[in-house]
Amino acid sequence: MKKALLLSALCFVSHAAFSQGFETIIFAADDASTLSEKYVRPFVKGFMYNMNSGWYTTAKTHNKFGFDITITPSVSLVPSSEEYFDFNPSDYKHLTLPNGETRIPSIMSTSDHTTMVNVSIPYENNTFKVSEFEMPKGIAGDMPLNGVPLPMVQAGLGLPTRTDVKVRYVPTISTSDGLKTSLIGLALQHDISQYLKISTLPLNISLLGGFTNLNVSYDLEDDMDIPDISISNAEATFDTKAWTIQAIASLDFKIITIYGGVGYNQAETDLRLKGEYNLTYYVEDPYGNIWNVVNETIVDPINLNFKVNGMNGTIGTRLNLGFFKIFASYTMQEYNTINGGIAFSFN
Predict the structure, then answer these.
(1) The whole model's pTM is what?
(2) Main-chain dihedrals φ then ψ at residue 178, nearest 5 degrees
(3) C-alpha 268: how far from its chain's center?
(4) 253: left (phi over 0), alpha (psi -120 to 50) or beta
(5) Residue boundaries of the structural domains of the chain
């Protein structure tokens, strides 16, 4: 069950980021990295904020060798301002939009509007290599919320020092359509209320530090619906590292737990298109007459790096039905995140 849940989420991540005809952006030549960074940025940022969520549902740590298994579906909400990005001609060397358009839907747009991009690259003897391509569409219209979903499964174990060690782990998994993924995460949560001698309330306070590392690769193949491009030995990779530090407090009553925390998140993602991409351009003179056709091969065309960091605050509640727990929380940060799920906890 653990593998199936996480694998389904990572399949979504891979297909969402790479299966929208993303490779057509390579026609933009020197502008490809700038354009693709603006297109995928809200998805990647939402994903990074999501990876740092869901580590806790209480500040109370387990007794010695107590343990839990927690399943946490979550979604990082993309601000409406990130559904589109402005197309500023001064940002690009070779690109223009037809019909005076100035905005392009991002990957997290609900719009089904198609944006054509014109490419004109100086060539020989006052001619230009020209092409056009259709920007990949947004995916948010196919989801109930405009956000980046990611279920996570983790296990926690109580150590003798009032410390819990929490682990997220999925070994390398491969699917028939060329997806490979692996994940590992580790966190330590230490109870500091034991040093404060709090006795009037069922109040617990703890500190948590966590790290998660995800690696996804997806094989790219020729698409007959995309003309003028052929692909060889190509793959897209999506590698994310996320860190978080949290101060947590909770009121742990028998039936209900109220918990919250404040902390700091940091994450970094590398997104790359690797392999060989053979592109066909048409050679035009300044008057729009086609004189020739040229083919070019580009190797490893896109290498993007994204970083996020910042403070966050979380408020949540948990229903305690013996060893069975049901919880929900809301984290306030640049991309607010909703968490909910179930846990099986044995002290």
Answers:
(1) 0.88
(2) 90, 15
(3) 10
(4) beta
(5) 2-346
pLDDT score, position 21:
61
Name the one residue in this structure whose structure tokens are 């009032």. Answer: 162
Task: Determine the pLDDT at residue 150.
Answer: 83
Q: Give the count of alpha carbons within 13 A of 219, CB side only.
A: 11
Tokens found for residue 97: 């939009």
In eight-state DSSP terms, residue 49 is H
Q: What pLDDT does residue 18 have?
A: 52
Name the residue among 333, 327, 336 with its Cα closest to residue 73. Answer: 327
Give residue 5's pLDDT: 40
- Of the candidates 312, 309, 314, 339, the residue with the CA atom closest to the CA atom of residue 150: 339
Q: What single string gives the DSSP state of each residue in 301-319?
A: -EEEEEEEEEEEEEEEEEE
What single letter denotes the amino acid at residue 22? Answer: F
What local confidence, expressed as pLDDT, does residue 281 receive? Answer: 93
Mean pLDDT in each 10-residue stretch from start to end of the chain (347 residues)? 42 51 82 92 92 94 94 90 92 89 89 87 92 85 79 92 92 76 93 83 94 88 77 88 97 96 97 91 91 92 94 97 96 95 93
Q: How far is CA 98 from CA 111, 138, 225, in A?
A: 18, 19, 22
Cβ-based neighbours of 233, under 8 Å, separated by 6 or more: 275, 276
